[in-house]
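hi!! sorry for the late reply, been swamped w classes. u asked for the two structures so here they r. pasted raw, havent cleaned anything up. first the sequence of the first protein and right below it the tokens
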Amino acid sequence: MERPLLGRGSALCCSYSYLKAWLPLLSWAPRYRLKWLQMDLLAGLTVGLTTVPQALAYAEVAGLPVQYGLYSAFMGGFVYTLLGTSKDVTLGPTAIMSLLCFSVVGGQPHRAVLLSLLCGLIQAGMALLRLGFLLDFISYPVIKGFTCAAAVTIGFGQVKNILGLDGIPHDFVLEVYYTFYKIPEARIGDVVLGLLSLSVLVMLVFMKKGLGSDDAPSCSTTIARRLVWTAATMRNVLVVVAASCVAFSWNAFGHPVFTVTGETSKGLPPFKPPPTSDTTANGTVVTFGEIVEVRSRERRPDSGTLVGGLAAIPFMGLLESIAIAKAFASQNDYRIDTNQELLAIGVTNIMGSFVSAYPVTGSFGRTAVNSQTGVCTPAGGIVTSVIVLLSLAFLMPAFYYIPKAALAAVIICAVAPMVDYQVVAKMWRIRKLDLVPFVVTFLMSFWEVQYGIVGGVAVSGVLLLYHTARPQIKVSDPGMLVMELGSGLSFPATEYLSHLIHTQALQASPPRSMVLDCHHVSVIDYTVVSELRDLLRQFKLREVQLVFSRLQPQVLEVLLAADLQDFRHTDSVEAAIQMETESLLDE
């Protein structure tokens, strides 16, 4: 009678383990301690005060009303607590995702929300199908080329707000031209406030670096040191609050010398399904299929297509977040589940679309603050989300007076570290060919950001295929021709291998025997086997030998199964040479 009980207990255990794999919350929640709660509250509060001004600023980059930045900033904390595997990562709007969103939807809120839903469905689908390996095809030079170009594009795009200029086009080349052309129209108030905000932010960054450690000061450190660390960590909110007070004071005295954010929607966003259709200014209804397929340029010339965006935005969002998660997991000595991270980001974007969010991903800056403040579990994200919700509920009227110049300063300081000029020198020293996809991605991103990613991946793919089709082959002659294959052997390389063998051995006068040293070859395919069968026949016709050496077991098994005529193999190159020598002596 006990067998069914054991079976039921085993089934329950397996079900719980399966549930824990999909809900990592069940792994750490039963062990939660009071000390962890204290640290999570502190980290969540710190990150929340950093998130609010950044979310407002990134909405400007996305070309959306500022409240959409906050709409996008709170869902990630709740979802990632349930599904995330990194204690440090914080999900929300970022500079790169905001730029990509703007390049696709051109500042149209309804389409930005729909884009979030579609990106989330793609990301969650990739997680369920275990397709995370596709991200491996986006090489490091492509990532660096894109992030450097994005930083330049985003940073320069905020210069117009520092100068208080209007009517600047969003195309990068035209933006540069008209920004310089309209400098005489700059507003003195915005220039002074913008430069002052930039100076304070940069000063606080250097003050924090001067402390020598990014981690939160311990209780034994001096009060002054703790105050400097706190002020430097909260620098964005301090600058935005101070600038808002200045703008409010000038407006109160009847001198509106600053360009402010203006009216914003008050209160929390409604929870409703994302729009799958749109209505133009003249009342024409645009269906879901038309939104996805037809160019949005019909309404706004600086936007792209949703189809083009869906080819780049989900992948870049996943890549950015997983790279951050891996970096902090390595730093803090724990492991993450890549496919689970894909699911967390996907579900965040799906659920975010129901509260009017645009696509989000992991933020490096806020994740760094989270880690440095000593967060213990993903529950710190709940505190951050509550801070954002409270801001939406009670502080939206105060956001009217936030100067655009101050938000521009926050954005410029956030993206400046992304311009990694030293990476060019490193690539030049290590492998100069890697500069090709880097440069292609960097330059094409100024034309249109998603084209930069696609172009860089295409160039990287061509280089990868070239090395597959032209493997390294070393030819030596220690008494007999020896051809050592320096890498794997697959069908693109068969023609190249055949050409070398014909040139070196079969077309020589007289024809020569050859040893193929295959100890680096782990996999071969049908095309390779067919070419080897033809080569063996050619060697036999010329009364010379082709001997295979140091074959790996799985390759030897395939060749034996192919039943090749005159197939000879040895365990070493020396044995193959000795076999040929004995054959000549017998003759």
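now the second protein. again sequence first, tokens right under
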Amino acid sequence: MDSVEQTAEILLCLSPAEVASLKEGINFFRNKSTSKDYIIYKDKSFLRACKNLCKHQGGLFIKDIEDLDGRSVKCTKHNWKLDVSTMKYINPPGSFCQDELVVEMDENNGLSLLELNPPNPWDFEPRSPEDLAFGEVQITYLTHACMDLKLGDKRMVFDPWLIGPAFARGWWLLHEPPSDWLERLCQADLIYISHMHSDHLSYPTLKQLSERRPDIPIYVGNTERPVFWNLNQSGVQLTNINVVPFGVWQQVDKNLRFMILMDGVHPEMDTCIIVEYKGHKILNTVDCTRPNGGRLPAKVALMMSDFAGGASGFPMTFSGGKFTEEWKAQFIKTERKKLLHYKAQLVKDLQPRIYCPFAGYFVESHPSDKYIKETNIKNDPNELNNLIKKKSDVVTWTPRPGAVLDLGRVLKDPTDSKGITEPPEGTKIYKDSWDFGPYLNILNAAIEDEIFLHSSWIKEYFTWAGFKDYNLVIRMIETDEDFNPLPGGYDYLVDFLDLSFPKERPSREHPYEEIRSRVDVIRHVVKNGLLWDDLYIGFQTRLQRDPDIYHHLFWNHFQIKLPLTPPNWSSFLMHFS
């Protein structure tokens, strides 16, 4: 019997108005057509949800009047109590966890509750762990989110970003990868790429690999926006890309299999992976916000996840209103701390034997981004690992480039000094120079492109982008390196209600955003039909908004939903020849 592809069933939909009227704390809902009941817990912008069904004997929960914090509900059958903010039963204590539903927001800020089926697909055809010989399973950290796994006689690599920048020119590698990184990639039997962001899918890295092994097997999840949507444009020749369904074991050999899972918050683009060798699971949640909707296998041999924060233009690239330097610094401090405690709690709940924080080792090293580098403080992996040690007896590993974890040794004896081999004395750990030139030349080439001799490129581009019927006006300003308006650069308004390009702001009530972008990056993005992550996550814009609201629909469209093929500029230019 084959395992079946994991599907998501919609259990309840709320309209944008119902979502807007959710109150802080506990909200009860009934789906009138199925007569099934649900609970949604709201904590500012974070939502959790579950069926209103007690695990004990299926009783209905009601508000717990003894609960002053507004976090718990009480079962009408036997007074069992559930803390909806953590989804744990508090009476009887330490008994069960409530199964969570996936909360998905739609284009208009409506909401759906989804149930993943099967919820725990890794339980299909379970295998008992066998003893591992020393040296049989070795995990070598290369850099950022890139791990080289030796699994018996097979080699698997995660997310190779080993040269060049990510997000246009905003992110550069913090760690110096081992000098033999290309040989290691060439020797891999398979590569897993978690998602399309350029710190995971690095075309400069894959270009070097493809010149030596164009047929290397690469595996990606079946996301709504294909991971390799931009392969043709990239000029990289890879001939063996495999898109696999979610929640299905992929058998590599008799001892090795893997399964790709979707993210509950960004199912259209994010994935994570479970690799299993002789019954020992390695869980890599990568950048997922709620991997597999929050349900994950407990007690895996090794878990790795992101931890650092700072992977967003918010709030460092914002100004005006509340966005003073003090507010931004305080916000970053608070958010990083929340993330640190969330990750520590997750590790405590899942109880892996070993935990490794990774995928946060980047630096804004280009001199023009000095402000971002100094203000966008990231979490320290050692601080997280110390927090985990206080809460549990999980073994932690702070990886350094070229360090090797011997899984068999550490599982047998966590105190074995040979369990983790650090890189040799004198190995360069941190990069101190980056080859900016060639990558900036590519961006600069777009500035002089003949498209931009004709101001009608603006209408052509935004028509191609396909976002309209939304009450938002943006002002786009091309700038120099320091975000000052570029003499002779474009400065224009776009009104998304009717997709017009007025000379001045309309007289009706409308939200307004001003987006200043470095001219090389915005023109490169426009010319090549790239996603706006390069601008936003890459810190290449400065933003002001009035009122101060996040326009999810607008940003989601330009960061995830742009057309898969770039604008047809050659036909555009024919009008002028």
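hope this helps!! also noticed smth abt the second:
The first strand starts at residue 7 and ends at 14.
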